[in-house]
Amino acid sequence: MSHNDDTRSHAAAGTAGSRTLKRSLSHGQMTMIVMGSALGTGLFLGSGTAIAMAGPAVILTYAIGSALASVIGAATGEMAVRYPVRGGFGTIATRYLGPFAGFLTRIAYWTATVLIAGVELVSVATYLNYWWPQLPLWAGIAAFGVALIVLNLTSVKSFGMLEFFLSSIKVISIIAFLLVGLCLIFFGLPGHAAVGTANLFNDGGFMPNGLQSVWLSLAVVMFSFGGIEMISISAAEAKDPSRSVRSSAKAMMVRLATFYVLAVLIVVAVIPWRSASGLGDAVDASPFVLVFEQLGIHGVAHFVNFVVLIAALSSANANLYAGARLLHSLAADGMAPRQLAQVNRAGVPARAVWLSTSGMVIAILLALYSPKEAFLSMIFVIMVCALTVWVLILFAYIVYKRVEPATNGFRLWGGQFTAAVGVLLLFAVWVALFMVRGSMVPAIVGVGYFVVLSLLYFARIRHTHMIDEQTFVEAQQATAEYDAMKYDADHALETAAKLGR
C-alpha cells in the first residue's frame, strides 16, 4: 500500500460508514482500561460468596486464580504485541485454530462482556441502596446505563480519558485500603487495637470447609479475573500497540496479584470469615464495606462503598467498550450483520454499541424481580463463556508458538508448557463449575447456548464467514509506522543534543 493510500485509509476511520477503528488510546489509558475491566464486582461483591465457600483458605484460591490469570494475560499479551489486530484474540484464534474456533471465541466473549456490563450495573444500583434503600434497583441501573451509552457513542478518546480517571480512583483507593488494612492487622489505628491474624484460624481453622473448598471456590473466584484479555481488544486502538501491550500486561499481572490476594487476606484477617461473607447466598453486602461497618468506622465504610461503586461503574464501562469492539470485528469478518461493522464520524461502532447494551436491558428486567438470586446465576453463565474463551486463547497460543518466530520483548514464561498447564487448570475449574451448589442449571444453560451457536454457525455463518487478513497487515503497519516516527523523533533529539555541545 502506498503512503497516500495509507493516509486515506486512516482518514476514513473518521467518516461515517467506515469500518476502521481509530488508534487513539495512549499507553496510560490502555493500562487503566485493562485494570478497570478486571477490578470490579467479582472482587468487591462476589468475594463474599467465595469466602463463604472456602473461609480464610480463599486466600489460596485467589493466589491460584492470580497465577492462572497471569498465564492467560501473558499469552494474550505476547500474541497482541505481534498482532494488535481488530477483534484481538478472537481474530488471532481464527488464524491459528480456524474460523469456527474464532467464531466461538468472539461470540463467547461478546456474550460475557454484555452480561458483565449488566451485572456491574446491578452492583452499582445495589451500592446506591447503601445510602438510599428506597431507590429502586432498576432506576439506578437505567440512569448509569444511559450515561455509559452516551459516553461510548462519543469517541474512544473520551472513553479512554474517563476510564483512566475512574480506574485511577479505584487503584489509588485499593492501595489506601491495603495500607489501612495492614495497619489494622499489625499496628492498630486510633481507637482500635491491632487485630492480628487470629481470625484466620479461630473459626474452624484456616481451611474450615476442607481442601476441596479451595478448588470449588475457583468457580466463583475466576469470575473476578474477567477482563485480563482486554489487552488484546484495546491493542487495536492503541497509538503505540507494541509498547502499550507489553507495559499493560506486566502492570496488570503484578497489580492484580497484589490487589486481589492482599485485599482478601485483609478482609478475612480483620473480621471473622462468617461475617465477611455477609448473608451467605445474598449479593447485597460487600465484604470491603462490612470490614469497616463491623469495626464501627462508619465514615470509612461510606468511602469504601463509594470506591466499590466506582469500581463497578468502571468495569461496566470497560465491558461495554469491549463488547462493541468484538461485535464490530464479528461483523467485519462476516459473522454478524454487516451493518454492525460501520463506525460513525467519531470512529465508534455505534450500532455495535447499541446492540451490546442488551446486557443492561437484561439487568433492568432482573432488577424488577429477584436480583439476589439472579446475580450468581448470571455469574455462572458468564463463567461458562469466560472459560471457553480462556481455553481457546491458550490453545491458539500453543499453535502460535509452533508456527511463529520468537517474539521480541514480552513473552509468557515457560511458553507452550505453561500454557498447557493453564489449560488443565481451566478444565479443573470447568468441573468445579458443575459441582458448586446453584451452578448446575446456569452451567447447563451456558453449554446449551454454545450448542445452539455451533448449529447456527454450521447452518448459516460458515458460508459467509471470511478471514480478514487485511487487519493483520494494518496492525503490523501501524506498529511499524509508530516505531519509525518514534525513531525519527529520537534521532532528531540526539542530533539537537550533539549540535548543542
TrEMBL record:
The keyword Protease does not apply. Belongs to the amino acid-polyamine-organocation (APC) superfamily. Amino acid transporter (AAT) (TC 2.A.3.1) family. It holds the Pfam family AA_permease. The keyword Endoplasmic reticulum does not apply. Keywords: Amino-acid transport, Membrane, Transmembrane, Transmembrane helix, Transport. Gene3D superfamilies: Amino acid/polyamine transporter I. The lineage of its organism: Bacteria, Bacillati, Actinomycetota, Actinomycetes, Micrococcales. Its main location: membrane. Residues 30-450 form the Amino acid permease/ SLC12A domain. InterPro entries: AA-permease/SLC12A_dom (IPR004841). Residues 1-20 are annotated as: Disordered. It is found in: Membrane. It is a multi-pass membrane protein. GO terms for cellular component: membrane. One of its GO terms (biological process) is amino acid transport. This is Amino acid permease.
